Each structure stands twice: as structure tokens, then as C-alpha cells.
Amino acid sequence: MSEPELLFNPFEPGFTDDPFPAYRRLREAEPVHESPIGIWILTAHRDVVDLLRSDHSVDERQVTEGAFVAQMREFESALDGRGRSMLDLDPPDHTRLRGLVSKVFTPRRVAALEPEITALVDEALDRIEDAGSADLVEALAFPLPFTVISTMLGMPPTDHARVRELSGWVVRSLEPLPDEETVRRVGAAGVELYELVGGLIADKRARPGDDLLSALIAAEAEGDRLTDAELVDQVVLLYVAGHETTVNLIGGGAVALLENPDQLALLRANPDLAGNAVEELLRFVSPVQQSRRVTVAPYKVGDREIPANRFVVAGLAAANRDPEFFGPDAEELRLDRPNARRHVAFGGGPHHCLGAALARLEGRVALERLVSRFPDLALDGEVKWNGRINLRGPATVPIHV
């Protein structure tokens, strides 16, 4: 007898180029799905929101079964106890660390960056205009958030190229990795990145500056400070998450606008719509496609019960296009969608993305100025995607202006 066909297979050819049809099929056929590879996947908006707001764990060490347990253990072994950011910790550790980091990563500090972000965007657009064409990812979508978070943290410019390369490897730890050699390379990149950041922290302790890293070193609440190890873990999280996700919003958002010329024209005619447009693009593009939890007890979702100690994927991208919540046009881009902000692109609950305000600001400034600056903006070739299941986005977006 032949093996049953997988209802959901993120490794099938073409999935990462356009995963949304697969998400739709899964949401319609089995919104609470137990995968043969040992994980559960939720795809309905209501179920995803409930899981994100629940008290279930984010600590993958509690998973007892599944195809990725060995991969997780090997990566943890390579890092030798490092890599425990607040993204991977439950209360009370998560509460304490997030409280200390949020003391310096404030909405007021982020809002004050708008003039600098605007200047960086305009400089990039000047270069694109002079050239007449460009790869939008290389010219704007990647360097903007990379430069902003590097400047915020006070990273030395001499380290940028190497840190960018290491970061690209480390984010693969959020993906199912195909072979032992890739796991080894991801682990080695993680070790090098953590050592690099550790050296930077030691330097900042001796010579503090007016930057986020110096403020994190000084941050204190009720006599509590971040230890060196905690500092390294949180800084690596802020650094990697600070640019590896927003590049997908800017690049993927631009592609969505160019493929929907009526919505591009709407934004040009109504620049005040830029704020809601970014929310709709976050919903439509889903720069982070998945989040995860580990059940701490049996968890009932609809008529299914997920056992304890199981890895559960919250399908953010699937939930963001759920017609039960967003209406029959959920698969369409609509920049004036009234409830666009109800997306789950930033996760939810206690682990809601700490950098959401920064991503929104960078996305709004970059996309609004891009489309208003170039009335003849158009694709100039084939868009190529980065091949990632989770942090999905375009690798190249050729444009001419």
C-alpha cells in the first residue's frame, strides 16, 4: 500500500516562491493539522490568536517527539548554552528580560529615528535614480534596516560585512535544516556571532556611547541588570531580528504593490494611507510566516486535542489570509482594509514583537517615498525568492525607474 499523500509539505518544489495556496488548502481541509513529521500546525486566525495568547511554552527543550528534535539539540550543543534570548524563554525569565530591554527600546526612541530613516531612504533612492535601475533588495530593502539597527546598537562599521554574513546563517536556525552540514555551519556562525557581540559588549563597558547597547548595559530595574551572557543573547536577537524581517516587508511589500497596480495608484493618490497600507502589506506578505509554541499540557483546539510536549506551529501567514476573519477578499491586497491592523504578522500575546514600531516606521517611510518618488516604477525582470519557509521574502527585486 502506498504512503498517504502529505496534506502539507513545505519542502515541495515551488512552495517558498508562493506558499499561500498550500496554506489555503490546509486551512480549508484541516485547520488543526498533525503533520507526519511530528509537529502540529494551526492555520485559522482564531486558533492562531488563541495559541499566541495562551500560556503554552516557547522553550523548544520541552519537545519530546518529532523530526526536528535532533536538529534542535545539535544546534543547542553547538552554541554551548548560548542563544537563550527572551524569544526562547517563558515567564518569569521572559518577563524580566523583556522588561529590561523594553526600558531602552521604547516607542519614543523609535519615533525619534524618523528623520534619520527618511534621510537614509532618500539617499538610497538618489542612487537608484542615478542608475536608472537596481535590485531593490540590495539597494534599499536590506541596507535600510541593517544600517538602522547597526547604528542603534553602536556596531562598528568595520564589522558590518561579516556580521551580515553570519546573521544570514544564524536565521536559518528558524528553518527546518536539510542536512547535518548545514546544521554545523549554522551552529558555527552562531558561535562566531555570539563571540563577536561579546567582544563588542566588553568594549562598550569600557567606553560607553550614546547607543542602544550602552543603554542596555546600564539598564536596571529594582537592582536587577542583564548579565554578560544575557546581554549577548538579547543583543544578537535585536540585531538579527532588527533587519532580517524588515527586509521582507520592504522587498515583499514593493513586489505586492507592483503586482497590484490599482493599489499602487491608490497609495500614490493618497499618501496619508501609508500607515494603513503598511498594516495591509504586513498582513498580505507576512514577513515572518510562522511562530511556535510547545504545549505544556494537552491542548484542545476545536474537536482535536494536541498532547503535551508537542511542537505547535502558529501559521501566521495562513491566519493573515483567513476569509473567516478578513472577509471573502482576504487573498486580495486592499490598502484601505478597515481591519488590516488585526493581522498577526508580529505574533501576539506576551511574545508580541518588541520591534514592531521600528518595522512599521521603516516600512512606511521606505514604501511611501519609493512609490511617490518614481511614477514610472516597474519590475525589470523576474523576482527571485529567498527559499526560506519561515522568514520568506524576495532575494532579488529588479526594478527600473
Give the termini separation. Answer: 57 Å
The CATH superfamily label reads Cytochrome P450
User: Per the principal axes of the C-alpha atoms, what is the gross shape?
Assistant: globular
What portion of residues is helical?
Answer: 40-55%
Q: How much is the average pLDDT?
A: 90
Largest sheet: 4 strands, mixed
Please report the first level of CATH classification, the CATH class. Mainly Alpha
How does CATH name the architecture?
A: Orthogonal Bundle
Rg, Cα atoms, Å: 21 Å
Element order: H for helix, E for strand: HEEHHHHHEHHHHHHHHHEEEEHHHEEEE
Tell me the strand percentage band: 5-15%
**SS-based structural class?**
alpha+beta
Q: Tally the helices: what do you get?
A: 18
How many domains would you count in the coordinates?
Answer: 1
Number of strands: 11
CATH topology: Cytochrome p450
Protein name: Cytochrome P450
InterPro entries: Cyt_P450 (IPR001128), Cyt_P450_B (IPR002397), Cyt_P450_CS (IPR017972), Cyt_P450_sf (IPR036396)
Keywords: Heme, Iron, Metal-binding, Monooxygenase, Oxidoreductase
Family: Belongs to the cytochrome P450 family.
Please describe the topology of this protein.
Elements: H1 20-29, E1 32-34, E2 39-42, H2 45-53, H3 69-79, H4 93-102, H5 107-111, H6 114-131, E3 133-135, H7 136-141, H8 143-153, H9 160-170, H10 180-206, H11 212-218, H12 228-244, H13 246-258, H14 261-269, H15 274-285, E4 290-294, E5 299-301, E6 304-306, E7 311-315, H16 316-319, H17 323-326, H18 356-373, E8 378-379, E9 384-385, E10 394-396, E11 398-400
Parallel strand pairs: 2-7
Antiparallel strand pairs: 1-2, 3-11, 4-7, 5-6, 8-11, 9-10
Helix pairs in contact: 3-10, 6-18, 8-12, 9-10, 10-12, 13-15, 13-18, 15-18
